[in-house]
Fold:
Amino acid sequence: MDEDITELYERLQREVADGNSPLPRTSPNPLPTIHYTALKENLSGTPLARSWNVYIRQVGRLLEEGHEGKWVLIANEEIVGVFVDRQAALRLAYSTYRERSPMIHQVSETEPVYRLSSRITLCRNSVSPST
Amino acid sequence: MPQLSFPFDLNGMIVDVMIAPGANDLAALAAAGEPWPTPRSGKGLIDTGTNVSGVSLRILDELGILPLDELKTLGIGGEVDVGYYEVSLTILNRTNGSQIEYSPPDVKVIGIDIPEIDALIGLDVLIGCRMMLDGPGRKFSLHF
Structure:
């Protein structure tokens, strides 16, 4: 090697400090997605799961009505409002529906799928196995 | 370019973190007439194997914020839907007295339960900075 690891590390630090990235800047790859028609109901019985199931049953209609990108507030297994911005839905959720298992979700034709580390131990009350 | 440096060993890359409700949740709490909770401090573990960060359920409960939506995730257990929260997550180094902090925009986090770890720092946070790992030197740094 032309430079040992310490020199390499120091050079990289200098380049970064000078604003010269040692690596090209690239856009992050988008997450894989799943189409709304492939979403499955969640039978775990948690409040969020029940709200999620309401969303799945209604998402086709919401998309047809032109609500893509808007935010839907679901509480007590009912859609209680569709909002242009999330903050309006959030305010209502905290002020009025806090004890009624609110869920806020952005209406979308596709849903991103995140990757979990094997370190993550999921608690029963936070997890809903997909059916 | 500001940077944070930390020692590390085979137990993992550990950073200091401060966790508070996200700005939207704070605004909603204020609108509801509820007090803002005190931010919580703890230890965060860097984990490049996940692209969604996590915060201990204990801290999330103490902050009093709600899991208002679910994420679809793929892990060892297959595909699962997980409730998520929006928080402000700040990385800092308390041991050297530095005032430098890395605070990305509010992030979606899931609840975790890992002994002695208060937060799991995933690629969703790391993508906003450069990380240098010096294995033989037993140190790593975040540049942002």
